[in-house]
């Protein structure tokens, strides 16, 4: 296969996968043009990360829930409850920051186990269980906080969402450490791609031509380093970006390479066939919901740290942003289809659009209209694409 | 000059990359039963979709002349308005609606106010039911009736639309012998009333029985149309046309080398999952030895699948009692995972709903049950997985360009090979194959039999559940008969005949009822 063929394939047969990336680039370009490149400025890019990190964290858990054929409507309320519990401990009772974090994660896990129990072992549809959870945990958040907002947490708790690594290796007006970290990441990426290619070759499988691989690594590397340069010129490396990166890499591995991940896809695609193939369907469903609870806990902590306060209404409607991110990112309502990177790009599309429209000075109402239409069009495109390739039978 | 109700001339239909139909012609005489035969993927269903307007006019090349006019159907509604009704293999009935609501769905009988006239609806439905010989209350929900009766309701629905040309896609595939006979009888009756039928079928004996003429399609082309009244039109002749070569033996030769007992089931009793107290499998005992193919013959509803699925990790039923021994040792079979560990595999009769993840690729379907072999500490070796899948694609001759194609895109026979690959990869000692050749064509059947022979030659034990008696007689060493949940007989193949088996399969009917 020549390079030209590979690129052609990227735009034709792989349109389903690559379409979302093309749309992403187009949206970035559009807003860069409309805002005189303000949207690509160092400060705005950094803010974008800080502002949408918790939605992306929720979307990681949500895409797994959706692949398994469920939905979780409660995550916004869980964010509120987790914030409430951590604030009561840290702010009201003056406990150390790590107690708040631990408690937040435990609350998330408990919520996940509770919902997992009803979904997996009692067999109530997740839609119902989490609709109940949406009310239940929102109510609990209000009770825990006595319906008033509680803050400030103060440092170091707020550093989770507001902290930066800056000046560790010096630099003249830019943070050298950020650049080094990103450069190492690019090297690791290139190395892993090379390793994957070598092991495919060892198994005598077809691989993309070497120049194509080089081109891919160079393009990805250039984009990443450009992004790093932007961050380095602002406040440096946000801690929350590190948390996010670790989660994305770990969960991409889990979904694509682990037995657990494969069982999630199997049961989302055909539950009975999975059960008859020895998949422990109940435990997988339980694990999926438990995991969602823990990630909602993480998101709740990040959001509270960013607001520097816990509010009874915190996280309202987050579930819808997270669900939208998954569907824009190519997940299927019927289960069995979806990827973590796809959901991340879907979340970023929503983020770039909201942020761009804010920069353009648009009001909230038209913003919602645009976001609603984009969600609809993204899924319509997906359906059209499936029909075109004849995947539906 | 014969009177043709339908002539399709030079039909060519292309999908991206594939020519599904190439210059196909079909002539159907008024008032005949016309069979269409061909291997899976030959283009039979595509041709019927062209005819019924599923693929609209302009989407294909060629002419359709129906009732002497050039037909240009843009949708299925157009063709139905002209009296062409197609009944698909997967029945399109709504289980929660009543029989009469289903019959008049989309074609409701309204009163003067525009609201549904229920008296008229139900009385007309009752008349239609009488015409198809179904004695059911028109207000019964369809989901409570068996597949055979549902098929008749589909025909009643077609009759309500003033059908002139009835197209049936594999009408008897899911029916037992008695229901099939009833259906074929009905088709004959409709013929006497001047209704023309086109029937797609794999069951050659049925075609020989009922069709006036048969058109054979292979690889998207018409091979020939033969007159079934001609004595030279034998089943062998049709098979030859379908596969393009003489199929001397429908069952591959095998010299049995039977060893020790591998699996023994004693006093297996299973109750219905929802109807408390109803016994579905009653004290069944059977055994299978290494190198042996054992058949389980039974009519639909005899409890064949229920026996197998309850055995396989208690996947069906409740209050299951009985003991399972492997190599003389009692084993537990309470979960599917335990069964797989104990070297038992079960390939289901319904590969689309129970056997495969259709949206997932062939590779992941093959590895689904044996994934633990590809994993270390919970992580799957994707390269090794691909290698394994490629090996099975080669050794079982799965026809797909590569193993990354979604399983749903394969033909029935190749899907069945994927299911077999999945279970063979778990390295079982006993394979229970439930209807392994249902709905697949003659050529693929032969390949499946060859695979079964290869498995027993390796010393494995195979249990085949089938409703096709010639198949059991062709491939088994020993056959158990199952009737109303009881094992009613055990016959070595040398002593077995279809008549004898059928007698055992219907035994004790009066006592149980």
UniProtKB/TrEMBL annotation, chain A:
Transmembrane segments annotated in the record for this chain: 20-37, 49-67, 73-91, 98-118, 124-146, 167-190, 210-229, 236-254, 283-303, 323-349
Key words of the record: Cell inner membrane, Cell membrane, Membrane, Sugar transport, Transmembrane, Transmembrane helix, Transport
Main location: membrane
Manganese listed as a keyword: no
Topological category with respect to the lipid bilayer: Multi-pass membrane protein
Compartment(s) of residence: Cell membrane
Key word Nuclease present: no
Function in brief: Part of the binding-protein-dependent transport system for D-xylose. Probably responsible for the translocation of the substrate across the membrane.
Entry-linked NCBIfam families: GguB (NF040906)
Protein name: Xylose transport system permease protein XylH
The organism of origin for this protein: Actinotalea lenta
Lineage: Bacteria, Bacillati, Actinomycetota, Actinomycetes, Micrococcales
Encoding gene (name): gguB
TrEMBL record, chain B:
SUPFAM superfamilies membership: P-loop containing nucleoside triphosphate hydrolases (SSF52540)
InterPro entries: AAA+_ATPase, ABC_carbohydrate_import_ATPase, ABC_transporter-like_ATP-bd, ABC_transporter-like_CS, L-arabinose_ABC_transporter, P-loop_NTPase
Keyword Transport: yes
Gene3D superfamilies referenced in this protein's UniProt entry, alphabetically: P-loop containing nucleotide triphosphate hydrolases (3.40.50.300)
One function term, GO molecular function aspect: ATP binding
Residue ranges constituting the ABC transporter domain according to the UniProt record: 6-244, 263-509
Keywords assigned by UniProt, alphabetized: ATP-binding, Cell membrane, Membrane, Nucleotide-binding, Repeat, Sugar transport, Translocase, Transport
Record SMART domains: AAA
PANTHER family associated with the record: CARBOHYDRATE TRANSPORT ATP-BINDING PROTEIN MG119-RELATED (PTHR43790), XYLOSE IMPORT ATP-BINDING PROTEIN XYLG (PTHR43790:SF1)
Protein name: Sugar ABC transporter ATP-binding protein
Species whose genome carries this gene: Actinotalea lenta
